[in-house]
C-alpha cells in the first residue's frame, strides 16, 4: 500500500481512505480495488451534495425571504466545493484542497442555519 502525499488530501471518510491507500493508478491488487471503490464513493457523496443543493433551492423558492437566500448561498458553496475538488484532483494543489474544505464547512454552516428556527417559538401559543 502506498502512503499519502501532501497534495492529495481529501476531506471526507472516502477521500481520506483514498488518500491513505493511494490513487488507483498508484496501487495494485486489492489496494487498487479498495482505492477505486473509495474514490467512487467520494464522487457519489459530491453528486449527492449537488442534488441536495438543487432540491433545497427548489424547496426554498416557495418560501422566499431568508430561506431562499440561504439555499442559494448554500448551493453556491456546494458548487465551489465540487469545483475545488475537481481542481484538487487535476492540479494536486493543497490550496484547492483547502478551498474544498472551506467550501464544505461554509455549506455546512449555511444549511445548518436553515435547520434552526428564525425566532424562538412562543412558550404558550395563543389559542
Keywords:
127 residues, mainly alpha, 4 helices, disordered N terminus
Count of structural domains: 1
**Oligomeric status of the shown chains?**
single chain
Q: Write the H/E string, N to C.
A: HHHH
The stretches of 5 or more residues where confidence is low (pLDDT under 50) are 1-10
Quick one: how many beta strands? 0
What is the helix tally? Answer: 4
Roughly how much helix do the residues carry, as a percent range?
over 70%
Concise summary:
The protein contains 4 helices and no strands.
Walkthrough of the structure:
The chain has 127 residues and is mostly helical. The protein has one domain. Helix content is 73%, strand content 0%. The protein has helices at residues 13-21, 29-63, 65-91, 94-115. It starts with 12 loop residues before the first helix and ends in a 12-residue tail after the last helix. Residues 1-10 have low confidence and may be disordered.
Amino acid at each position: 500500500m502506498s502512503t499519502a502525499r501532501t497534495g492529495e488530501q481529501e476531506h471526507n471518510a472516502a477521500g481520506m481512505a483514498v488518500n491513505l491507500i493511494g490513487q488507483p493508478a498508484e496501487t495494485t491488487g486489492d489496494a487498487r480495488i479498495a482505492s477505486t471503490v473509495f474514490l467512487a464513493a467520494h464522487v457519489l457523496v459530491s453528486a449527492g451534495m449537488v442534488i441536495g443543493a438543487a432540491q433545497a433551492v427548489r424547496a426554498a423558492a416557495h418560501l422566499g425571504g431568508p430561506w431562499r437566500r440561504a439555499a442559494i448561498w448554500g448551493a453556491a458553496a456546494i458548487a465551489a466545493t465540487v469545483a475545488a475538488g475537481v481542481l484538487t484532483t487535476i492540479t494536486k494543489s493543497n490550496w484547492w484542497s483547502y478551498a474544498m474544505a472551506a467550501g464544505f464547512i461554509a455549506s455546512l454552516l449555511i444549511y445548518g442555519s436553515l435547520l434552526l428556527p428564525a425566532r424562538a417559538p412562543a412558550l404558550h401559543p395563543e389559542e
